[in-house]
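Example 3.
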Amino acid sequence: MSSAAVTPGSKGKVLLAYSGGLDTSCILVWLIEQGYEVLAYLANVGQEEDFEAAREKALKIGATKVFIEDLRREFVKETIFPAVQCNAIYENIYLLGTSVARPIIARKQMEIAKQEGCTHVSHGCTGKGNDQVRFELAYHALNPSIEVVAPWRIPEFYTRFPGRQHLLDYAEQKGIPVSQTRGKPWSTDENLFHISYEAGILEDPNVTPPKDMWKLTVDPEDAPDTPERIEIVFSGGNPSRVINKGDGTDVTDPLDLFVYLNTVARRNGVGRIDIVENRFIGIKSRGCYETPGGTLLRIAHMDLEGLVLDREVRAYRDEHVTPVYGRLLYNGMFFSPEGDLLNKIIPLTQASVNGTVRLKLYKGTASVEGRWSDTETLYDMDESSMDVQGGFEPLDSQGFIKIQSIRLKKWGAKALN
Amino acid sequence: MSSAAVTPGSKGKVLLAYSGGLDTSCILVWLIEQGYEVLAYLANVGQEEDFEAAREKALKIGATKVFIEDLRREFVKETIFPAVQCNAIYENIYLLGTSVARPIIARKQMEIAKQEGCTHVSHGCTGKGNDQVRFELAYHALNPSIEVVAPWRIPEFYTRFPGRQHLLDYAEQKGIPVSQTRGKPWSTDENLFHISYEAGILEDPNVTPPKDMWKLTVDPEDAPDTPERIEIVFSGGNPSRVINKGDGTDVTDPLDLFVYLNTVARRNGVGRIDIVENRFIGIKSRGCYETPGGTLLRIAHMDLEGLVLDREVRAYRDEHVTPVYGRLLYNGMFFSPEGDLLNKIIPLTQASVNGTVRLKLYKGTASVEGRWSDTETLYDMDESSMDVQGGFEPLDSQGFIKIQSIRLKKWGAKALN
Amino acid sequence: MSSAAVTPGSKGKVLLAYSGGLDTSCILVWLIEQGYEVLAYLANVGQEEDFEAAREKALKIGATKVFIEDLRREFVKETIFPAVQCNAIYENIYLLGTSVARPIIARKQMEIAKQEGCTHVSHGCTGKGNDQVRFELAYHALNPSIEVVAPWRIPEFYTRFPGRQHLLDYAEQKGIPVSQTRGKPWSTDENLFHISYEAGILEDPNVTPPKDMWKLTVDPEDAPDTPERIEIVFSGGNPSRVINKGDGTDVTDPLDLFVYLNTVARRNGVGRIDIVENRFIGIKSRGCYETPGGTLLRIAHMDLEGLVLDREVRAYRDEHVTPVYGRLLYNGMFFSPEGDLLNKIIPLTQASVNGTVRLKLYKGTASVEGRWSDTETLYDMDESSMDVQGGFEPLDSQGFIKIQSIRLKKWGAKALN
Amino acid sequence: MSSAAVTPGSKGKVLLAYSGGLDTSCILVWLIEQGYEVLAYLANVGQEEDFEAAREKALKIGATKVFIEDLRREFVKETIFPAVQCNAIYENIYLLGTSVARPIIARKQMEIAKQEGCTHVSHGCTGKGNDQVRFELAYHALNPSIEVVAPWRIPEFYTRFPGRQHLLDYAEQKGIPVSQTRGKPWSTDENLFHISYEAGILEDPNVTPPKDMWKLTVDPEDAPDTPERIEIVFSGGNPSRVINKGDGTDVTDPLDLFVYLNTVARRNGVGRIDIVENRFIGIKSRGCYETPGGTLLRIAHMDLEGLVLDREVRAYRDEHVTPVYGRLLYNGMFFSPEGDLLNKIIPLTQASVNGTVRLKLYKGTASVEGRWSDTETLYDMDESSMDVQGGFEPLDSQGFIKIQSIRLKKWGAKALN
């Protein structure tokens, strides 16, 4: 197709999820070339970014409008906290730091697209990854009438740009400013909750990431030699207060509290993992992640649940909510009938999760040193005691064991002897 | 009941699980007093113990025979390794160190009881804990015709010994040697896999355990300032070799390998937890645990599974095997129809779990630095690569997403807009 | 114990769940003999019963008060309808007819016990069955301070009455009227939802129940030779209207509607099963059940869900709610933390379950002949059509299949060839 | 593309799954036109078919070879019996009659394709259905190097044949014999296990299927007025013998036995359902099915499991195997890592499933009249008995209930009062 033949804007308005980097800058220009009017959208979910520079760059290279949205507060309250409440995790290890940001980013994008009369939305995700799926499933659920343009899946685009050098050439040719002449040998995605590293040299799962890759947390070996101690208070399963008597911190605002947890975890080297995971599309992929504050919240929240959550409610949540929720977040199904259902179920499990957990942070570790709850009473020191009789009749255990053994005796008599 | 009235041995032979400590020594003598002939049985599952001193003590206070059995090798191979293979865990945190020892101890006890013509077996577990359940369910399954004597659930016994002092008085009166005049203010259970601490001052869940409580592992703050690095090799999901180039270690024997992992984890402060858990009988209880080598195996095994296990097999195992197996171990159902079934299922999931994981140990942390597998091929660097096309057609993702969105669009059109 | 020594009423007031039959009449008199003041409580949950005769009998034999409570409406609305909403079933076959009545009966009993100042409640359940567990767990959860007297587990009682003849002798001696001189060779439990038959000649699982055992439903062989057709309307997963154009029925009141469904199912022989089930206490037991109206509701509700419930919500409910709820109902855990949670989850799954199902009833069968929903739109005739393209691009399936096959090709290349 | 330009056979050999009907006959000719050499493959999985006529037709219209394979025996033994063993079902109602045939058909097709040096395989499934997925996932897993040609997803094909009339025109033009001038207003898929009806007039889910649609079973209203009785014997969960004393039947061969069960179920009108289901690709679809013999096996097998299967093994299988297996069969994942795992797990659950079930068949119903097992002993008449004490101590139930209630009392004291 000859771009000369395209009337500018003839294909309608597209709202592009723009990062300011090389890829989405080239996409922005390419979309204009294809006949779209391009509006740029940049979500602030806590990543380190020069937002104003990105705004100027987008306008300079042809965007007709730029939207920069601070979504940090809703990110913390609407997806990070629910993930903490249900101890969300993927494949037993990954805290879903990218996944929890996507619904927040996509929702605002669709709101703006609707308000601005866009017929399309676009993004710079590759055709092999999870994020294309997460963004697009959210887009489709939120507004089925708006179309998606995914350049990295359009042959005209991806055959034109088979490598980074082709993007750099195009940028030069189109006058797109390029801040960094040499990319890092890995990709990253950063937000308030975490940063991910993948691709490049990390594709060999036996390559140890270089020390300078890790950006958010101090190397445990470089962390302070003296532990720090904090207290995290939970109300209804949500963190409601963080206290560090050592540095005088006492925060209650959800965003401030989360930012502080990041700070204290980062300086003590807490929250790194290095894994091989299974992407939704069936490919295995190696990723490294730093989730500083989120790791503290997970440890503290799970510990408190031990004290205040009924055994069967906990088991139900652990087996029937946590893995399902982790997988649906990972697979981009936050906005879905089942996502909606689970988002309603999670708080039902958390009414009794009230109390305080004391953590010690030291060179990459976060250990629980104690916990208490003023309002919850499932833990009963007398009952639990091995020394005190505590209203408990040993003979009851006798009956309990005997009844349990009926089935086993029958089986054992036959199978084992 | 007047003990004068009882003919010695008139109640038959009882095989007592004997520890050499105050409780089971008093029980031994009390059982003789009740008219039993008492045989003592002491399982070596790797706990620190003067077995010969215990033997002499048992004989001295009236046991007619003493059986000291080294079960460490079968412990490692028959319950520790399967637990590692399925990443067994209770309430997301406890590695089941007591639970995995019980089946091994109980099985040998029942073998000896049968061989010696015992009509009864006995143990010193309290009436409020999990271990009474674990031992007795195993006993009943393994030999329904042998009866159980559980003194701590017999009113004559527990009303006679309401506190530790009463046991000490009885010991003095009966000539039972007491090595320790003052007990520690907590209880412990130790084996090759772990040590547990509970009761006493730990009953207040907000009391931080004193530094000198922890017995197996060095305090992370006192661990070496330089990391140690090891490699763990797995074959069929079982650890088959451990290499530490730093100290020249290269072990392959299951028991040696496990003992070495304990050594290296202990000196680096790895494997402590402090939790509140839900006992089988419905009471909440605070416990502290050290599981040094087991913690390394868990981390390495789970990591390798990321590389070599199919996504759906992993998800199946994680959701349908691991939690069920963890709970049945905890609840003492190892010897049961469902335990038998799961023990057969676990190895079926592990055929592809072959490869090596490199760990860094440092002041309480154990981090994965890389992993590889010579035989497994689910991970494909080209396919995974964001740079290489790798036989993957981006248009396929398009169709994948579109099909996934059919359902979501219908729902979204109705529910969200 | 000599009854002469007991001061009447000295043990406090007990509220006995009374049926008017031989067992509970003897228990009533025996409790008085033991020193209790006995108040009788008879719940009307729809069983066939001469309630006034029972009242007179209770008073005649010594009850100081009698409470007869019509609980049918709350039974239908509070436990039958939720059971229908989640397709509750035990071991894939039993519709839990006894289990759903127990919470309703126990709750009112505890209300009256509290209001009357009773220190105890009592019941006539045997020591081997499920109902003792169901009643008592409900009692304990609802009011932990009221004690339970379970005569069939008290040695003085059960050794005194080892068989039915001993109860008859006692009745004669104490002047307890006995309406039936000869019991049926099985036991029954009847309510609005079902009737159960067990014990006696049914204990041999290969004995075919005699034709005259079945009480609620006509033998299919004796049912009309012409089918009957009804329509059941659901709103939010609850039945809200039943129409039978054949006999002019059009009912909307929950109780009337359920009674009518019983009527029409009974006359067409619908709802019989004959099974061997696993009791909570680990014993296998043979039971026969008739659940006429409940069977129709189950068939119609499940059918409608096919039309209106999202696939993943249905799968979630089927795998994570239905079996858990069935087991907790069966095991008497309705009033429990997890029961409370599930009772809140169930309605969350049912918002879209609105529509009408047409059933044909004929000689023991109930077949769906069609269904529709005016408000729900997940079913889309064009989209579903094999003839119409319907906004569906066949190429999308191509990509969907290709992505699904990535994993399988890797595995197949290795495992199968 | 002009067909004149294509050299015959230049695209290689394709093995087409051929049915002899209009669609696959047109596909056969069209594939030749595209430049393929076409070999035809027709699997006999028990459908009613004139196989020799199909062979002649395939050869007449251009196939260079025709393979007609009798797969009935392996179908019964390798997928029907495992489905029975685990009570496989989809969405609680559909017995998966199409799904269980697909792996058998696909496997033989890939074997022949390899042996004949085919580079491609092809089928006549539409682009909206489940069968394209089932066939192709099996193809890809079984032989990743053979390509798939799916004409109904190729734009050149499906735009050329937008409706049945276009296929008829093409057939006339190409000399393809058309046996039936008018198609039925629905589609069917038949095999030994079942027949399905969908599409056409059935697309309105409220249309009652016409009486003459149902092909395999007699209308219950037309079935005999006298019940028939049969006995089904199971060994290791597989049916091993069927006896009908009424007609003198006594069969043990797996295929003969299954054919006989079909016969007896068909004549008594057993096995019809009419549902709306969720296809893998996310579309809802209405289907009617007849599964005569399979329905009898399901009823009998589940009943016997009540008698002989341990409660917890049954619960495990019901919650962790049956739904997973049903879904993977439905979604075409039989040949997959997880399918392989489950195929190994299923027999592990069935070792004790030995015994006989007596069924009564009558006008669409199949009721259990009794069951017994000579070898299994979990059912214990004395223990189960309400009249006999049976080695069961009522006081044990007391302890069992008390222990269960600890948790509930704590919760109840707080939550309910």
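The two ends of chain D are 80 Å apart (CA to CA). Chain D has a mean pLDDT of 93.
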